[in-house]
Design brief:
It contains twelve helices and twelve strands. It has 341 residues and is of the alpha/beta class. It folds into two domains: 150 residues, Rossmann fold (3-Layer(aba) Sandwich), CATH 3.40.50.2000; 174 residues, Glycogen Phosphorylase B (Rossmann fold), CATH 3.40.50. Helix 8 links the parallel strand 8 and strand 9. The chain is globular.
Length: 341
């Protein structure tokens, strides 16, 4: 059986989909997936053994130049890539109008979330097979339910298995005893205070650990430099691509992260991971894994789901909600994992 899967972004959403592929492979021997995904994240589907072919798209870039020669070339290549097979099922696991539109470029039965389940209900108009999945559950369980309904097997009650193997990712640094700090996020409301990161590095360094940070873009690199200036236990690792970042995470002793895509990758690799949540709710999109711990703030307006903090009363840190998650509290949680290893 061959299935065309459409799940283009984001990194966290893509990683949340991996356990559903594991379920399907166990329930239907020989099933293979072709996966349509944003080219930025094209490495990730390759890591799952049930994925035979990855078909990259650049929808985000194409939208900026709808009538450009590059965009027209991209659409022609996509049509060519999707014409290789008559699919047994075309499954849109994104539930957006743009992802539903892509289902028309391939041949096969089109399936996806129904009007009450999809993030953009209009997307359901594209599907011949509409599926009802409870929206109010963690994204991993939502994807596992969708796949089970679409492919006709019982939803497993077992813990999610991401299908990633640490040994498949080569080390990118010589150090063995290190933590990775994932501080970068586009929402300022999700950024743990810089002073807390530096304090956490001091606590880790006192226990014999180096702390690795890697930034994306000028702003994050400058942010990492400021934190490193406050603690000589912080090392800045040069800008890494997704596969190299996976190697850095896979061989770490532990990871501390804000709500960001690489936090989900670390948790999926079964690396001890403590994730910090302020503006967002871990109940639905928290980093999940065998060795994952989620720490949510205790604050009246959290989770606010706002990209910027609107709290205006006096506070020792910004965003104010993170005052309930100081460095010592976070260290005590990651230390439990480190002691147990």
């Amino acid at each position: 059986m061959r299935v065309l899967l459409i799940k283009t972004s984001s990194m966290g959403d893509i990683i949340h989909t991996l356990p559903a592929l594991t379920d399907a492979a166990r329930a239907i021997p020989g099933i293979k997936f072709d996966w349509v995904v944003e080219n930025t994240f094209a490495d990730i589907p390759h890591w799952h053994p049930a994925v035979e072919r990855v078909i990259p798209v650049a929808l985000r870039r194409w939208r900026k130049g709808i009538f450009s020669a590059e965009t027209r070339k991209g659409w022609r290549q996509l049509r060519k890539d999707l014409s290789h097979h008559q699919y047994d099922l075309i499954l849109d696991a994104q539930g957006l109008v743009k992802s539903a539109f892509l289902t028309f470029f391939a041949s096969g039965l089109r399936a996806g979330l129904d009007f009450k389940s999809a993030r953009e209900p209009l997307s359901a108009c594209a599907y011949q097979k509409k599926l009802r999945v409870d929206f109010y559950q963690h994204a991993i369980h939502r994807m596992r339910s969708l796949f089970a309904l679409a492919l006709g097997y019982s939803m497993p009650s077992s813990a999610p298995v991401f299908g990633l193997q640490k040994l498949n990712f080569a080390p990118v640094i010589a150090d063995n005893n290190y933590l990775v700090f994932l501080f970068g996020t586009t929402w300022t409301s999700k950024q743990w205070p810089e002073t807390y990161w530096s304090q956490l590095a001091e606590l880790a360094g006192a226990s014999g650990y180096r702390c690795k940070m890697s930034g994306y873009g000028t702003d994050e690199i400058e942010q990492a430099k400021r934190m490193a200036a406050r603690s000589h236990f912080i090392d800045i690792v040069p800008d890494l691509d997704i596969k190299s970042m996976a190697g850095l995470l896979a061989h770490a002793s532990g990871v501390v992260a804000v709500d960001t895509g690489f936090a989900h990758l670390a948790a999926a690799l079964d690396v001890p991971t403590v994730s910090l949540y302020g503006a967002t709710n871990p109940l639905y999109t928290g980093a999940e894994g065998k060795l994952s711990q989620q720490l949510a703030v205790d604050f009246p307006c959290a989770p606010c789901l706002s990209r910027t903090c609107h709290y205006r009363k006096p506070s020792e840190v910004t965003p104010a909600c993170y005052a309930s998650l100081p460095a010592q509290k976070v260290w005590s949680e990651i230390e439990k994992f480190l002691v147990a290893q």
